[in-house]
Amino acid sequence: MNQYIPILQETQLFEGCGKEDIEAMLGCLQARLRTYKKGSFVLRQGERLDKIMVLAEGKLHIQRDDHWGNRSIINIITPAEMFGEAFAAPDSGALLNDVLAVEDSVVFLFDLNRIITVCSSACRFHSMVVQNLFFAISEKNRKLVQKLGYMSERTTRGKLIAYLSDEAKRKNSSAFSIPFNRQQLADYLSVDRSAMSSELCRMRDEGLLRFDRNRFELL
Q1: Which of 188, 92, 200, 107 is nearest to 148 (CA)?
Q2: Could you tell me if 106 and 65 lie in one domain?
Q3: Eight-class DSSP state of 155
Q4: Is position 36 within any domain?
Q5: What is the CA radius of gyration of the chain?
Q6: Same domain, yes or no, for 118 and 176?
Q7: Exposure of 83 in the CB half-sphere (CA atoms within 13 A)
Q8: End-of-domain residue from the set 140, 165, 180
Q9: Pair (35, 125) in one structural domain
Q10: Which residue range forms the structural domain that includes residue 14?
Q11: pLDDT tens digit sequence for 158-199
């Protein structure tokens, strides 16, 4: 477990905590590690959750399939990112989405009650973890609002422009890579893959951008 402490130091949950402090808190927070093979489900829609989870290794997709098998990717989880916190509270209800391992993955599980209740030994950094949890949830809400902005665009081109523009701003460069292949990008933006590919080609022909696989350059 200790080999993943450098990853935990990069998480919002343990921001500001040193290696020794995290080592001391792992027992206090009843941390556990669980491994998942590529293609297996970490969480399923309808389950109930009482843990906060942090990806230590691999890649996960938060996604939803409708009755007819149409898939929408809600979010992508990369190492050092936290997930599950929105449904870990007792009255949060069942999970609305699936969490799928798209690579072999290792996940930390932390007991929510142990995080939000300062222990009797009063770990020096426990209160900082509670504060970090609040800030992390706020950041997740901001990202969801950002995605709602993409969804509010009426056309496939509008959604592509909104998403790619934000990625360019986030990377501070007009040339950047995105974490999706074509089908995953279509699922993330809730558009038809063929229509999206055709629109990208039109945008390229109009001199708006260049692309190669998941590499884009806005012109």
Answers
A1: 188
A2: yes
A3: S
A4: yes
A5: 19
A6: no
A7: 24
A8: 140
A9: yes
A10: 2-140
A11: 999 999 999 999 899 999 999 899 999 998 898 999 999 999
Q: Is residue 32 part of a domain?
A: yes
C-beta separation of 210 from 176 below 8 A: no
Q: What is the dihedral of CA 205, 210, 214, 218, to 10 degrees?
A: -120
Domain shared by 11 and 74, yes or no: yes
Judge residue 13's burial from the number of C-beta atoms within 10 Å of its C-beta, 0-12 exposed, 13-18 middle, 19 or more buried: buried
Element (H, E) at 28: helix 19-28
Residue type for position 83:
F
Alpha helices in 31-181 (DSSP H): 112-116, 126-152, 156-171
Q: What's the rounded Cα separation, in Å, for the pair 10 and 132?
A: 12
Contacts of 161 (CB under 8 A, 6+ apart): 153
Q: How far apart are CA 108 and CA 169, in angstroms?
A: 31
Query: Are 169 and 79 in the same domain?
Result: no
Q: What is the pLDDT along the chain (219 residues), one digit of tens a residue?
A: 788 999 999 998 888 888 888 888 888 788 899 999 999 999 998 888 888 899 999 999 999 887 677 888 888 899 999 888 877 666 667 788 899 999 999 999 988 888 777 665 556 677 778 888 888 777 777 878 888 888 889 899 999 999 999 999 989 999 999 989 999 999 889 899 999 999 999 999 999 999 999 999 999
Joined tokens for residue 104: 């072999």
Domain count for the chain, please give it. Answer: 2
